[in-house]
Amino acid sequence: MDVTQQIQSFLQAENLTLDRGGRIVLRDISFTIQPGECIALIGPNGVGKTSLLSALMGLLPVTSGQITLNQRPLVLTSRRAIACAIAYVPQLYEGFTGFTVHDLVAAARYAQRGPFAVHSRADEQIITDALHTTGLTDFRERLVSCLSGGERQKVFLAAALAQQSPALFLDEPTTALDPHHQQQLITLLQQLRTQGRTILFVSHDLNLALMLDARVLALANQQLLYDEPAKIFVNSDHPQQIFQADFQRITTPTGQERILLHV
Amino acid sequence: MSEPTPLISPHQTANQGAAGFSPRGSSSSTTRLILLAGLLTLLLLTIWFTPRLSAIRHDPDQLPMIMEQLRKPRLHLAMIAGAGLALSGMIFQALFRNPLAEPFTLGISSGASLAIVLGLALGLHPAWLGGIGMMVLALIGALAVVMMVYGLAQLRRDRSTATLLLAGVCINFICGAGIVLMQYFMRQYELQAVIYWLIGSVDVIGPGRIRLLVALVVGAGAVALWLMHRSLDLLMMGEQLAASRGVNVALTRALSYFIASTMTAMIVALCGPIAFVGLLVPHTMRSLIGPSHRWLLPACLLFGMSLLPICDCLARNLLGWYSSSHALELPVGVVTNVLGGFFFLIVLIRQRNDRPLLA
């Protein structure tokens, strides 16, 4: 690998092998993420996308291989240092639902401020901004138990913004959302992308990858089969190979390419 | 880096069901401080009032002696035990992310009890090593149960009320069987002491330095847990999420389990397995002051310190009020069991069946 590329890289995976419960899910995966890149981890159900995402954040141990975050081995990086680099947007909330939206977003300040910090006015401003950005200002004191799936997703995005990490890792960000919330989320992700945030998301929505002009990492049969820009990916027979399904490509009147399932 | 422009949607207020909902978590710092001040007042009233309340008229000459040698030490022990049990309950509820978890329902008190009864049956004196020996035994029992219940929850990848409570019930059965077996081999006078102790009471005062030791442990535990309040909040939001936000989950979890188990074990060794204080106090406080441990912890501490002396005062006087002819006292465990049993039932009814957590 080129030396300059190595120095600049944000995250690097070398010969990763992952297993879940003794079964190998991914074998010998290698790729490099540069700062400011937008990556779509694409693949069929159960291929190990979420496992890979978790492993890249150090939440799941790897069977073999190495992950390097900001030129340091991930295993030698503290949880807080990882949190300062990567903010995670989970697909589902499995915690206690008696917290308010504000509580959940405020808790994300842990990454920057540490366990013993006093909640400051600067923190409060950052939280207010994050709620404002995601359109949740009116939801501030609402309980999580009273929110819909789409609203919860936005809360986690707000929390990730409040975490102020240069990278966002999202797990199936649009799967549970209605079109209205999908539109909001995609617009926000596009804005974040133009501001230079590194974005990595797991999805099987190829159009999301197109809309964010992402680099596609396509996984199938335990391997990283393709690593190419979304436009090239959808204009080849690669989606067919990855998903074992037929697709149709269309161009919208505004000149945007989209890919549809052909039934 | 500037944040993107806001995404304000015209649909949001229209269709997201804001109408008629009064958020519980809206209590600002001021209202929370007022609540804490109220709880402090309750505690001060308890400290002043409960030792003086008596169903029986005492000889005025003896009263100062009764106050100094019986009532006040008993009040102090009840306060310490109440605080420790309330905090233990709070921690177990946070770590298991389940509002019905507490030392008694999880079987931790039973584990500690079994260890102690085993020690007694093997001929150890209750005051072995100045009373500390029994506490160490209780701690071993408590930690063994914590590991069993936690292991089961991990193994089944399930922290639902059903799994945890059934695990607790099983452990209570097993430990109960062990205790009965030990009792079978005990002598009459030992048996009576063990039965009384198993009900749970705070009138077994013992030497003052043991109370001081437990008070110090509970106090130090409270301070340590309060310092961890941010990590505890995040753990309650989910272990993976907490880790992704930068929390050292394994360390926080191990420390909290150890602190809560130590407090429980010491209190069980002194007072017996007093049930449901650890359920009732954190639960009511969480609905009053919110789930954030920064506020919840002092609230639980203050309310726990008030509730157990109040229950004990009731237990001490109930029979006396009923019939003044005899001065029989009930152990406080009777009162907390009745109170907590009904409370538990209410929580269980209110909790939706399919939900692992109380919404």
Question: What does this molecule look like?
Answer:
The complex is a heterodimer of chains A (263) and B (359). Chain A is built from 11 helices and 12 strands. With 263 residues, chain A is of the alpha/beta class. In chain A, strands 6-7-8-3-9-10 form a 6-stranded mixed β-sheet, sandwiched between helices. Chain A has a 4-stranded antiparallel β-sheet with strand order 2-1-4-5, with helices on one face. In chain A, strands 11-12 form a two-stranded antiparallel sheet. The longest helix of chain A is centred in the C-terminal third of the chain and has 16 residues, at 179-194. Chain A is globular, with a radius of gyration of 19 Å. The N and C termini of chain A lie far apart (43 Å). Chain B is an all-alpha fold. In chain B, helix 2 (29-49) packs parallel to helix 13, helix 5 packs across helix 11 (249-271) and helix 8 runs antiparallel to helix 11 (249-271). The two termini of chain B are 37 Å apart. Chain B has helices at residues 11-15, 29-49, 63-95, 108-121, 132-155, 161-184, 188-199, 208-227, 229-236, 239-244, 249-271, 277-289, 293-322, 332-350. Chain B contains 14 helices and no strands. At the A-B interface, helix 3, strand 6, helix 4, helix 6 and helix 8 of A face helix 1, helix 9 and helix 10 of B.
- What's the overall geometry of chain A? globular
DSSP helical segment count of chain B? 14
Low-confidence stretches of chain A: none
> What is the alpha-carbon Rg of chain A in Å?
19 Å
Q: What's the structural blueprint in terms of helices and strands?
A:
The complex is a heterodimer of chains A (263) and B (359).
Chain A: H1 3-8, E1 11-20, E2 23-33, E3 38-42, H2 49-56, E4 64-69, E5 72-73, H3 79-85, E6 86-89, H4 101-107, H5 110-113, H6 121-133, H7 149-162, E7 167-171, H8 179-194, E8 198-203, H9 206-211, E9 215-220, E10 223-229, H10 230-234, H11 238-243, E11 247-251, E12 257-261
Parallel strand pairs in A: 3-8, 3-9, 6-7, 7-8
Antiparallel strand pairs in A: 1-2, 1-4, 4-5, 9-10, 11-12
Helix pairs in contact in A: 4-7, 6-7
Chain B: H1 11-15, H2 29-49, H3 63-95, H4 108-121, H5 132-155, H6 161-184, H7 188-199, H8 208-227, H9 229-236, H10 239-244, H11 249-271, H12 277-289, H13 293-322, H14 332-350
